[in-house]
Amino acid sequence: MKKLLILTAAVLLAGCLKVPQVPTLGVVEMPVAAEAEEEAVWTSTDYEGKPVLIVFMGSWCPYCKMSMPALNEAAKNFDGKAEIVGAFMDSDKDAVLAVAKEHGLTTKVLYNAGGAAQVMEVTGLPHAVLFDKKHRAVKVWEGFSPTLAQEFNEQLERLTK
User: Fold this and answer.
1) What confidence tens digit (pLDDT) does each residue in 98-139 have?
2) How many structural domains are present in the chain?
3) Which of 2, 4, 113, 146 lies 20 to 30 A from 91 at CA?
4) Burial (CB count within 10 angstroms: exposed 0-12, middle 13-18, buried 19+), residue 52
5) Structural domain of residue 68, as residue ranges?
6) Going along the chain, which residue ranges are E strands?
7) How many CA atoms lie within 13 A of 140 on its CB side?
8) pTM: predicted TM-score of the whole model, two decimal places
9) Is residue 56 part of a domain?
10) Strand (E) or helix (H) holding 101
């Protein structure tokens, strides 16, 4: 009886434990906010073999707007070496284009990113996720920090060597 009780406890405990898994980018598609007539779609698989930095934002979010210079700097410093994108939760493409233009956002701008944000368990904005060359999540940033540009650059430098 004692052995059965220990075995039952071990099985229950094993069922409660989760094996940690490294989140991966997988296949993510989001529409590109551009002033083109034809709708373009950004697909993560187009950037296999390159690090990807996705920053989830909202056009209404003041901290997201404060993060845009850090995003621009990363895009400038790692052009061709990494894919840097601003993924807006907004479904209104025109609102996204307006805020991107107003704040001089030079990265690729995506919109209607709510589905991707849900899959990546985004809980607040801005929310940045850095994926390595194998598209495994290696770093997550929640919220704005004045050192965000420096942190993006340090992490991307390490991944693009």
Assistant:
1) 999 999 999 999 999 999 999 888 999 999 999 999 999 999
2) 1
3) 146
4) buried
5) 24-159
6) 29-32, 40-43, 52-57, 83-88, 108-110, 127-131, 137-142
7) 16
8) 0.84
9) yes
10) helix 93-102
